[in-house]
Specification:
Helix content: 10-25%
Radius of gyration: 14 Å
Shape: globular
Number of domains: 1
Largest sheet: 6 strands, antiparallel
Number of helices: 1
Structural class: alpha+beta
Strand order of the largest sheet: 1-2-3-4-5-6
């Protein structure tokens, strides 16, 4: 397995009163994680243990994508600010279901 040098740039975890969890981890990489063209590896999670409500992540070979419930969608990464805003929007909208 090949490892890419990375620097942790964001990490936060919140456990809410309803037992839901928001977990955000972002690394800055020395080179893109193909097929991505940006220099970030990230995992943004909202759910409960064993239950994913919303998740944004990227991985080698698969690229940027997001999960809403059981459904996976491609995700167009624009910037870290846009990524966090999109995640926050999905978390907020999940509560309205």
């Amino acid at each position: 397995m090949q490892y890419i040098r990375a620097r942790l740039i964001a990490q936060a975890k919140e456990v809410r009163d309803d037992d839901s969890i928001i977990d955000i981890v972002v690394w800055e990489l020395a080179e893109p994680l193909l097929p991505c063209t940006h220099l970030y590896k990230y995992r943004l999670f909202f759910g409960r243990p064993g239950e994913c409500f919303v998740r944004y992540d990227n991985e080698r070979g698969k690229g940027d994508h997001r999960h809403v419930g059981e459904v996976e969608f491609d995700y167009e990464f624009i910037s870290l600010d846009a990524l966090l805003a999109d995640f926050e929007r999905d978390v907020t909208n999940w509560r309205k279901r």
